[in-house]
Amino acid sequence: MENVELPAARPKLQPQVILLGLVSLLNDSASEMIYPLLPIFITTTLGASPVIVGLIEGAADALASILKFIAGAWSDRVKHRKPLIAVGYALAAGSRALIGAATTWTAVLTARLIDRTGKGIRSAPRDAMISDVTPPENRGRAYGFHRAMDHTGAVVGPLLATLLLSGMGMPLRTMFYIAVIPGAIAVVLLLVMLKEPQREWRAADSAAPAGEVAGPPLGSSFWSVIFAIALFSLANSSDAFLLLQAHTAGVSTAMLPLLWAAHHAVKSLLSTHGGALSDRLQRRYVVALGWTLYAITYFFFPAAQSVTAFFALFIFYALPFVFSEGAERALISDFLPAQARGKGFGIYYLVSGMGVLAGSLIFGEIYQNISKRMAFTVGAALALAAAIVIALPRRRVNTVTAP
Asked: What pTM did the predictor assign?
C-alpha cells in the first residue's frame, strides 16, 4: 500500500496567548460598552464639536503611542514584561469611572488620557510576549486569535450597553460605572494566572543610559514596513467619525451599540483565520488586501443614508481589519531580532498612533469645514497608496525564538 504523507498538525496556541486573549475580551467588553456612545455623549450631553471629538481621540491615541514605545523598549531591558501588562490594564479599568463622573469635555479628555496611558503601557510588552512564546510559522494565527478575542469583547460590550440602556432603562452615566467591573476581573486574572516565559535577557541592557534604547539595530526592511504603516495611519482616522456620520444620517443613539457590535462580530469570527492566512501566504499581500478593502469602504461610506446601508457598511468595514490586524503584527515580528521585540512593537505603535492623531485632526477639519465626502475620499486615497507600498518585497531577518 502506498504511504500517504499526512499534513503536519497545526501548532497549538500557547497558554499565555489564550490567557492574554481572554483578558483582552474582558477589557474590551468594558471599553466597548462606552466607546460607541462617547461621540454622542461628548457632542450632545457635553456640547462639544466634532473637532473636539477628533482632538480627544487623537490626543488620547497619541499619548498611548508614545508610551507604547517607551514601555516596549523598557520591557526589553527588564526581566519581566508581566508587571507592565498588568498595570496597563488596571489603569484602563479605573478610567471608566471617571468618564461616568465627567461634566465637561476636558474631564472626558482626562479620563481618555488615563485609559490610553494604560493601553500605552501594556500593548507593546503584551505583543512582544506573544512573539516570545510563538514560533514564526504560527504567529499570524496567534495575533489573529488575540485580535479575535479583542473583537469578541467589542461585540459583548455594545450588547450589554443596549441591554442596560434600552432593556433596563439604566442612565448612561450609571452604565459607565458598571463598565469598571469586567476590566477589574481581567486584572485579577493576569495577576493570578499569567506565567511569563523565560527569554534571553542581558543584564547589561538594563544598565544602558536613560536616553538610550537597548537592543540590536533594526534593519531597512523593518523601517520600510513602518513607513507603509505610517502612511496608512493617516487614513485610519478615529472610528468615532464613522459613528458620528451614522448618527447624523439618522441612526438612533440606541442603535449605535448594535451597529458597532455587528462590525466586531465579523472581526471576532474571522480574525483568527485572517491572521492564519498570512502564515500560508505572503504576509505583505494579506495586509495590502486589508488596506485596499479599507479604501473601498471609505469611498462608499458617505453615500449611506439608511440604517440598513450603515449595517451593511459597518459589517463590510470589518474585513479590512480581519485581513490586516493579525498579519500586520506578524509581519512586524518577522523583521525583529529577539532582543528588540518590545522596542520594535513600541516603534510600530508610536508611528501608527501619531499618524492616527494627524489623520483624525485632518479628517475632522475636512469633515467640518469642507465636506464629508472629501474627508472620506482623502482617507480612501491614502489607504490605497499605503497598500501599494506595503506590497513591495522585503527580506526577513533571522530571529531567535522561544521553543
From this structure: 0.74
